[in-house]
Each structure stands twice: as structure tokens, then as C-alpha cells.
Amino acid sequence: MAQMLIYNKIVALDTVKHKDMKIAPVTDFSFAASANSIPIAAVEFIETSKEYPITFVKNTQGEFIPTAIMGLQDNQNLFISEKGNWHANYIPAYIRRYPFVPSTTNEPDKLNICFDESYKGLNAENGIPLFKEDGSQSPLLEQTVKLIQDYHARMKQTSEFCTRLAESGIIQEMNAEFGNKDRTKKFRLTGLYVVNEEKLLQMDDAKVLEFFRKGEFAWIYSHLTSLSNFTRLMDRFFAMQK
Question: What separation in angstroms does the CA of 194 have from each of 72, 150, 166, 213, 236?
Fold first, then answer.
């Protein structure tokens, strides 16, 4: 199975092979220390915007994916301490589901539950069981499966939202340079896209109404508001250099 962000060795969860497996709760987020951006669902925009900048990036298919920006440099997450603590109130669902992750199947709307075999909290001695003695899912696994299924559905909704944004012609590449107060250090961020508010205000009334009726205008303005967090991110970066 292909490697993906923060996951190292993804294997499918097997009710027989892993029937005795236990998992310790994730308390050390060092696995995400090199992730300078995290994919998020549109439904997360409001909470995410309170702490992180939200931008869009293009995947290999040219589709826009919303992301929470965690760092100003490659392999840098400014919200994780050396001890692996996450220093922010909101943690994106992509991170909260770890070490689990879904994989699609040949059957529509059916997912396989997988996990990162390299996660140190997986063992047969300590932690919370994934399965009951009768082989059914434990409450923990049931909760995890629900989170994964909900996140997968939300990301499909997000993909449709981003497609309509792109088709409306209101997304543009961000051209921004950030620096410290005396401008001795600068960062130019590339490959990031944002909504052009001027074009948004000029959008056709029918398209505006569609976004409004779907409850998505709150997402758009949460994204725009979140961009002010780049200044906070920069301050956090320079504070950590001292």
C-alpha cells in the first residue's frame, strides 16, 4: 500500500490476525513533527481558522485540497514540541484518527480499516483491546471506525466544494512574502492557493446563492479570516529560534 503523509507502514486491520491487538492512546505527536501542512475537511474550517492559516494546494490530478499550514519551512510543524506535545487547542481530524486510516474497496461506500504498523502504541500487552472476545469490535474500535467513515464522507463533500470553487474562477495562487520585524529574514511561500475576495464579491448571483444555501459561505470566510494566522505562525517561528 502506498505511503502517505505521517504514515510509514500501512496494513489492513484483520479480525483474525489482529484479534489480540491492543492500542495505547496517542499522546506523543512526534509522528507529525515533519508535517508542515495537514489536509482538512471543509467542515473543520471554522475551528481550524482560529489557530492555523487555511490554504489550498493542488494534488497530482490538479484538484484543490484544503490544508492547515503548520510551518513555514519543509519538514517543520511549529505546533509540536520536542517532547511530542501538540500546542494548539484544535487538532485536525486527519491527525486525530492516527494510527488508523481507511482504504477504498471495489464496493461503493465501503472502506477497509487500516493502521500504521510502525505506531509504537500498538502492542499485545498494554493498551485498550481493538476486539472483544467474541471477535466483534470494541467500543474504541467502533468509535474509530465512525470517525474514519465520517471523515471520508466529509472529504468527499469537501472535494465537491473545492471543485465548485475552482469552476467559479475565484481561487488564485497566493503571492506572499513574510519576514521578521526588521526584515532580516524572509519567507516566500509557493504552491499555495487562496480565494480572491474581490472575485468572490463579483461572482454571479446564482453561484453565490448556491454556496449560501449549502452553508458554505461560512467556510469561505473562515478561510479568508484564517490567513491572518500567517503572522502568528511567523511570530511562533521566530520565538522558537531564541
Answer: 16, 26, 10, 22, 22
Q: Rounded to an integer, what distance in angstroms lies between the CA atom of residue 83 and that of residue 127? A: 21
Q: Is 166 among the domain residues?
A: yes
Quote the CA–CA distance of 233 and 36 in Å, as a whole number: 11
Pairing type for strands 193-195 and 128-129 reads unpaired
Instruction: List, as one string, the DSSP characters of 147-199.
Output: HHHHHHHHHHHHHHHHHHHHHTT-EEE--EEEE-TTSSSEEEE-S-EEE-HHH
Query: Does residue 148 sit within a domain?
Result: yes
Q: Residue 50 contacts by C-beta under 8 Å, 6 or more apart in sequence?
A: 89, 90
Grid cell of 216 as nine digits: 458554505
Total domains in the fold of the chain: 1
Task: Measure the CA–CA gap between 145 and 141, rounded to whole angstroms.
Answer: 6
Are 226 and 194 in contact by the 8 Å Cβ rule? The answer is: no
User: What local confidence, expressed as pLDDT, does residue 108 receive?
Assistant: 62
Instruction: Summarize pLDDT for 220-242 with one digit per residue, the tens.
Output: 999 999 999 998 998 888 887 76
Phi, psi (rounded to 5 degrees) for 199: -70, -35
Regions of the chain short of the pLDDT cut 50? 1-3
Residue 4 falls within a domain, yes or no? no
* Residue 1 forms part of a structural domain: no
Nearest to 100 by CA among 87, 110, 111: 111
Look up residue 157 and give its three cell numbers: 463533500
- Domain that residue 76 falls in: 10-240
d(CA 193, CA 195): 7
